[in-house]
Amino acid sequence: CWLWQSVAGKMKKWHWCLEKLNLHRRNCMSDDINFNSLKEKLISDNEKLYGQEVKERYGEAVVNESNARMAGMSLAQWQEQETLSQEIGSLLVKAVQTGNPAGAEARDLCEAHRKWLCFFWKEENYSLDAHQQLAEMYVSDARFRSFYEQIVTGGAEFLRDALALYGNTDPQSS
């Protein structure tokens, strides 16, 4: 009798563990579905806001490639780029406070921004020239300028200026 109670107790525990595992799997699948839906919405919203303009400027193939990279990101990659994005904001504040776009803080900022871009651009397609053009757009386009201005006053200009000097020390520029 006690043997069956013990076995029954273990079976109940085993079933409880299986139920928890299945619940975890369902939640993970739900998270995957929600994450994929989030990416689809971000891509769709981005296309609506900037699609035509960006395609005219950079070409449809570049835009499609970037969208495909974003759509293919894992949750871990997404979280990594989000963390890096936050780090860029902190680095920008510190770098602007130095007032030196050629300083070590500015180089760290430029490198972090390059790494962040390469979540959306293929590493082999990265060029300092394209990065500098993007930073110039951050200054000239009020939509992007305001994003950096919310982080720190003069942020867009500082990033642009730092990237202009970053080329002098960037190992990929040779």
pLDDT averaged over residues: 81
- Structural class of the helices, strands and pairings? mainly alpha
Termini gap: 80 Å
Give, in order, the helices and strands.
HHHHHHH
Could you describe the 3D structure shown?
This protein is 82% helix and 0% strand. The protein is mostly helical. Helix 5 packs antiparallel against helix 7 (155-166). The longest helix is centred in the first third of the chain and has 57 residues, at 2-58. The protein is globular.
State the main characteristics.
174 residues; mainly alpha; disordered N terminus; disordered C terminus
Please outline what is shown here.
The protein is an all-alpha fold and 174 residues long. 82% of the residues lie in helices and 0% in strands.
Topology:
Elements: H1 2-58, H2 60-71, H3 75-98, H4 104-117, H5 128-140, H6 142-151, H7 155-166
